[in-house]
Amino acid sequence: MAKHTAALKVGLALLALSMIGYIVGPPLYWHLTEALVASTSSCSPCVCDCSSLPTLTIPKGLSNGSFADCAKHDPDVNEDTEKNYAELLTEELKQREAKSMEKHKREDTALLEAKKIASSFLKEADKCNSGMETCEEAREKSEKALTEQKKMTSMWELRARQKGWRDGATKSTVKSKSSVQAS
To answer: What is the residue extent of each domain of the chain?
Structure first.
């Protein structure tokens, strides 16, 4: 059992070391190679002004004199380009303004529609509330009438009992009276 746990610990330690090497190794390798290259290089860094050199060189036999003139600064062309650029920007701003106005108009109509729907729901709610109040008033009135009717019934029942009335007595007396009348 002890051999298995020791082997497991050694295996986990090797796995951890290999993962650390896998993660830290490549950046460390590149930093070390850059340091070695920088220390072995005896040449100082080059300082060049490449802005005056053309990016594309054309062989002398194929060169066109007007192509070299294209790269030169022409104030007339530059001014026309700036005007066109300003016109394009103005047109784009107008289009964006028109789109935003259209969007604003759609949102306003949607807001008005929502207000109309909310108003109709409020009207329906008011109708429902007034109907509920009417029903509640009618229920209260009927409850009062029922209470008064129960009082009257109990009072008449008490008077009838005082005069000798019983629950089963009325049915038998009614039957006996009807049988007497039939004979």
So the answer is: 83-164
